[in-house]
Amino acid sequence: MMSSRRLLGSIVALCLALGGGLAPAIAHHSFSMFDPAKPLQFEATIQSFQWTAPHAVLWVQAGQVGTYAPGLWSLELPTSPANLAKMGWSRNVVKPGDKVIVSINPIRDGRRAGQFKKLTIAATGQVLEALNIPGASQQPPK
């Protein structure tokens, strides 16, 4: 029979092994589901802005966009609210009802969804992008 100390050690080791392997997979996903070869730009109206981790999401209402029927679009920003704040964004930078022009990479499966690239607020001309995080290295570590 296994001693309680040894059993506890085995359980802790198992939890660490499982947790260490799963955490990165759960924490982030690939953006390969979006098609950068077919960028779209269209006019839309902000319905809501989800300032949530791991990625903020813009919900916009749009008319006919190419072969896409009019409707609600889900646009995933490529980074977290913390990084967006470093780029000058805030949870109130866009409001429901704002008219915008969005540039996205559409999702490959044909739904009204995409990876956010750029947004222009029609009333002010303000351009919002989520490209370079200030202070972040532009080169991958070697």
Mean pLDDT across residues: 81
Task: Give the low-pLDDT segments.
Answer: 7-28
Relative helix content: 10-25%
Approximate shape: globular
**Largest sheet data:** 5 strands, mixed, barrel
Which structural class is indicated by helix and strand composition?
alpha+beta
The fraction of residues in strands falls at 25-35%
**E-strand count:** 6
Structure description:
- The chain is an alpha+beta fold and 142 residues long.
- The chain contains two helices and six strands, in the order H-E-E-E-H-E-E-E.
- The protein has a five-stranded mixed barrel.
- The longest helix has 24 residues, at 4-27.
- Residues 7-28 have low confidence and may be disordered.
Keywords:
142 residues, alpha+beta, five-stranded mixed β-barrel, globular
